[in-house]
Each structure stands twice: as structure tokens, then as C-alpha cells.
Amino acid sequence: MTRKGSELLEFSYPYFEVGPMLVMKEKPEPNQVFSFMMPFTNEMWCTLAAMTMFNAFVIWLVESRTGHESVGAIFWFPLATLFYGGHSKIYVNFKHFTSLLSMFYMDYMNFFCNAGESPRSNLTYFVLAPWLVLILVVSSTYTQSFTSMITSSDTESSSCLDIEDLKKTNAIVGCDMEDSIMLQHLVEYIGFQRKNIKHIAQSSIDDYAKALSTGKIKAAFFWAPYSGLFLAKYCKGFRSWGPNHNLRGSSVIFPRDSPFAPYMSEAMVRLCGSGKFKRMKDDLLSFPECSSSTIDVTMKRGIGPGPFSGLFILSGTASAVAILITVIRPMRRRWERLVQGMLMGRGLWVWLTTLFSRDQRGNQLQVQLARISFTSQTQLTSS
């Protein structure tokens, strides 16, 4: 129902209140107890815990082979770096990457100095070097993500998200731009900039839900009947405001001065007044299976192990190499001792053989010399 239309046509009593309805994604209230785990996914936490315990075991194994009497602090150092190294403010800036590594090295030295222990094996440093780089990146990412999550949730919960807020922040809103009346109303009457309006067909309700869930649009504008249909299907995860401006209504149209218009208006008044029309609308807008997939998409946010896979592989490879070296060293020493024993046994045999052969040759020489001396004496006597 419009002013220009009333000059040409006859309208019955409106059965629908028509106005622009604002539909936005409802911010779910997270569990505050475990909110610190939200920046990372469960897979990321499990991977980080497994890598931490693996590196701790490798460091303990390496240091125990060096005769270290107390390796308690060394065992817990990979786990302590998750928290102890974050006492300073960390920002990912590759121009100052060297200074950040120096800062972690100072934290590392302070930790061991306070504990009264320090690694004795170079393999420990070989394992800790990629691990410290991994913790540097993971801790800075966690700090930024968690801080952003807290500030954004506080901002959204403390501010009243209405049309004025959307206009001030130049938020992208969606509507059916083929509907010239809706577009004109948003631009001329409400004051949205045309560049901040994204076209989404009003008949495709699922496209609105997808755009709101993924963040392509901050809000959507429907006419009141369509917003009811949208909220009936997606009953969880969205809220509606309005109508803020009741410009028109939906009614039955008749030709100008039609005698049927008053009778239809009377029937509409009775139908709406008795509550039958509301029950009919509720029955039509009820869905047996209310879709709640959008709320699941918004809740399951977090950073997985994918972006850090290279660092995890590097740290795991260093630890695996350290284990191989630690295991091979005793085997190599045993092999060297075995070879040395074999060589020593062979050398003793050669020495005894040589000594015996020398004694035998000496005896033969003495016998020959005795024979020669006896022969010479016999010749002298006969002469």
C-alpha cells in the first residue's frame, strides 16, 4: 500500500504490516570458563601438547645420557616456554626477528639460572632452537587472536547494534536491489551509501543465511513477511529488529471505487481481531526441522595446526635426529670397544708370535756360532 497507489486503486484493510526489517547474526554467548581455548582448535591443542611432551622426553633422554644428576627443570622447559616466554609483549615483526629470538634466549637463560641447571649436551640446544621459534610464532598468534576475540566480544555486547551503528561503521548490508522500493528506502530515507549495499535475491533465503554466517554482510533488510519466513527457517543464530519505518502494508487490491473493498476490509478486521489470522501465519511459518547450521559455523572458529605444520615438522625432525644420535652413540661406543678388543687380542697374538720367533732365531744363531767356534778350535789344535 502506497500513497500513489491509493489514488488509482482501492485497498482493503492491511493484513500484513510491511516495513524494512533488520536481520543480523546473533552473537552466541560463549562459555567463559573455556574461552581461553577458543583461539585454537582441539586438533591444534592436541598437536601442541603432543609435540611438547615429545620434545621434553627427548631433552630428558639426551641429558640423562650425559650424567646429569638433576634433569627436572630441563624436562619441564619445553612446557614452561609456552607460558614463561610470554611474560614479555610479543609482536610478529620480522624486521625485529633477531631481537625476538634474543628475548626468548634471555628468558631461556633466566629459567635455567633460576632453576640452577643448564643443558650439558649440544643436542639439547639443537632440539630447543626450532622449538623456541615454534613457540614464538604460536604464542604471538594466540595472544593476538585471543585479544581480538575479547575486544570484539566486548564491543559487540556493550554496543546496541542498530541502523545508526551500521551507517557509522560503513558496514556492508544486503538486500534485493532489484526491489526499487527497498533500495530507494535504504538510500534516501535511511541514509545508507549505495556502495555499502550488496545485492542478494530476496527469494533465496539460504543465500542470506550463508552471507550472514560467513561475514560477507553485516546485516540484511527484508520486508516484514520475508523476515518472518527467514527467521522461521533459521530460528537459531539470528535476530531481527523493526520494522523501524512502517511505510506500507499488504492488502487485497480492487479497482477504484469497487463495492467489494469494504466487505473485504470488514472480513480482514474480523479475521485479525479474532486471532485466527495470527494462528494461520504461525502455522504457515513453522518448519518441522529448524536449521541451526549457521550457529555451528560461527561457534567453531579457531586456528588449526595447518598454518604451523612446517614448524611442527621442523621441530619434530630435530627431535627425531637427536634421538637417533643419542641411541647410535652408545652403540657406536660399544662397537668401537668390541673392535678395539678384537684388535688388542690380535695384537697380543702377533707380539707373542714375533717374540717367540725372535727367541727361536736367537737360539739357532747361538747354536750356529757355537758350531763355528768349535770347528775353528779343532782346526787350530790339529795344526
TrEMBL record:
GO terms for molecular function: ligand-gated monoatomic ion channel activity. Pfam families: Lig_chan (PF00060). It is found in: Membrane. Its main location: membrane. The chain crosses the membrane at residues 44-62, 74-94, 123-142, 308-328. The keyword Transport applies. GO terms for cellular component: membrane. InterPro entries: Ionotropic_Glu_rcpt (IPR015683), Iontro_rcpt_C (IPR001320). Keywords: Glycoprotein, Ion channel, Ion transport, Ligand-gated ion channel, Membrane, Receptor, Transmembrane, Transmembrane helix, Transport. It is a multi-pass membrane protein. Coiled coil: none annotated. Residues 42-317 form the Ionotropic glutamate receptor C-terminal domain. This is Ionotropic glutamate receptor C-terminal domain-containing protein. It comes from Gossypium raimondii (Peruvian cotton). The lineage of its organism: Eukaryota, Viridiplantae, Streptophyta, Embryophyta, Tracheophyta.
